[in-house]
Design a protein that fits this description.
Elements lengths: L2 H9 L14 E5 L2 E4 L4 E4 L2 H4 L8 H11 L12 H14 L4 E6 L2 H16 L3 E5 L8 H4 L16 E5 L14 H16 L7 E4 L15 H12 L2 E5 L26 E4 L10 E6 H4 L14 H16 L2 H20 L5 E7 L2 E6 L9 H13 L2 E2 L1 E3 L5 E5 L7 H16 L3
Parallel strand pairs: 3-13, 5-6, 5-7, 7-8, 8-9
Antiparallel strand pairs: 1-2, 2-3, 4-10, 9-10, 11-12, 12-15, 14-15
Helix pairs in contact: 3-10, 4-10, 7-8, 11-13, 12-13
Length: 427
């Protein structure tokens, strides 16, 4: 056990998870690579849990942060804040939500917590619809709407949560249906559920479930849900903490794959926009955002130094068409991984979109989750210089692949080759 690991265990909670039998300290990074305290260089295919979205030590972001730090770091929302207003203007325009207002937080958890506050206040209901296998954060309210047992430490909640079918396409009672029939069955289930309950405040959903193993429904499911929700006045909250900013390649926001019925009423974001700086936020129509009848501020949400980073990062990803790169390089990577998986009985499915790819592992010859294999692949990949993530919900074990959006074709091929060897070592 390293000295730092021993110190970690002595002062931090037991439930604070660490990857690897011999936990890794990352000391610095550049581009798509990081270096560990062991002196080794690693290709990073997880980006601080999808947070270092653009690149490590991106010069444009580093410069913006350094210059802002030389002026002022922080003043709170009690004072006018030029970088916050400028970033809010850009996000409001990009969101697709009409007459949008933006509130900044420090994390995706806090963003979802704020969205729940807005929705329940606006609708005067504490009942929430959420998706099975979902994850929305670590706060008391966010845990209460998380449909993933592994990340929900308590059943106590200020909310009454009802869980809806549809977030997982290839498992569950509707898995064998065609896409069209799958959507129809999920919509029928939603209608039936609403017939048995008081009218909920909102449905919250990740367009692609992150912690749950990068699962998603067929395109159009949430558009079909929206038609039903609108009949009841129920709001739609799109949790874009992991899917926003072009990561899926096909769309800038995950909700756009379900956009037939228009944009969500509320959109939450975080992670990638700060490229490692702590930024989260909520976008909502003005009538929803302004429904609170008490004062509120944010001490650290929207602070100048994080807003400077967000502005520089957003400009970079738009000017360099990183959404297009995610679509192109991600498409090549997923096809390469599917070719590898076709030869390996331990792989049940390779799924995803853009640079958000999941590899679901099972015990060969069965449909059962294989968490030991997932842990073994993580270790084997690290041994060859590749960092990846893992996740999965009920009875699943999934490798999570989410590199920075500047990933090159050569780096994608290098990572795929390492994964092929790592996967080939498990049974």
């Amino acid at each position: 056990m390293s000295d730092l690991y021993a110190r970690h265990k002595a002062v931090l909670p037991d439930w604070l998870a660490l990857y690897y039998k011999d936990p890794l300290e990352i000391t610095h990074g550049e581009g798509r690579h990081v270096w560990g305290d062991d002196g080794r260089k690693y290709l990073d295919f997880f980006g601080g849990i999808l947070t270092t979205m653009t690149a490590h030590a991106l010069p444009e972001v580093t410069k913006a942060v350094t210059e802002q730090a030389g002026r002022i770091l922080h003043s709170s929302t009690l004072y006018l804040n030029r970088p916050m207003v400028e970033l809010a203007e850009r996000i409001a325009q990009l969101s697709g939500i009409p007459d949008a207002r933006v509130f900044f937080t420090t994390s995706g958890t806090e963003a979802n917590d704020t969205a729940l506050l807005l929705a329940t206040t606006y609708r005067r209901s504490n009942q929430i619809l959420a998706m099975r296998n979902s994850y929305h954060g670590r706060s008391f309210s966010a845990v209460g709407i998380t449909g993933n047992r592994g990340w929900s430490p308590t059943s106590l909640s200020p909310l009454q949560t009802l869980y809806v079918h549809g977030g997982v396409r290839t498992r569950g009672p509707f898995a064998r249906l065609s896409d069209a029939d799958f959507i129809a069955a999920c919509v029928a289930d939603l209608k039936d559920l609403l017939g048995h309950t008081r009218s909920p405040a909102a449905l919250i959903a990740e367009p692609i479930q992150g912690v749950g193993g990068f699962t998603s429904p067929p395109d159009g499911l949430y558009a079909a849900f929206r038609e039903v929700l609108d009949e009841h006045g129920i709001l739609w909250i799109a949790d874009e903490v992991q899917t926003g900013w072009g990561r899926t390649g096909d769309n800038f926001w995950g909700w756009q794959a379900h956009g037939r019925s228009g944009p969500p009423d509320i959109l939450t974001f975080a992670k990638g926009i700060g490229n490692g700086m702590s930024i989260g936020g909520v976008v909502a129509r003005a009538d929803i955002m302004n429904c609170l009848d008490a004062n509120s501020i944010s001490t650290f949400g929207g602070t100048q130094i994080t807003m400077a980073a967000g502005l520089a990062n957003l400009s970079y990803l738009l000017e360099h068409d990183l959404q297009g790169n995610a679509r192109c390089v991600g498409g090549l990577l997923i096809e390469r991984l599917r070719a590898v998986a076709a030869q390996l009985p331990v792989v049940r499915e390779v799924r995803g979109r853009g640079l958000m790819i999941g590899i679901e592992l099972v015990r060969p010859g069965t449909d059962e989750a294989h968490p030991d294999a997932a842990a073994a692949v993580l270790e084997a990949a690290r041994a060859e210089g590749l960092l990846i993530g893992k996740g999965g919900g009920h009875n699943t074990s999934v490798l999570r692949i989410a590199p920075p959006l500047t990933l090159t074709v050569a780096e994608a091929e290098e990572g795929a080759a390492i994964l092929e060897r790592a996967l080939g070592c498990v049974h």
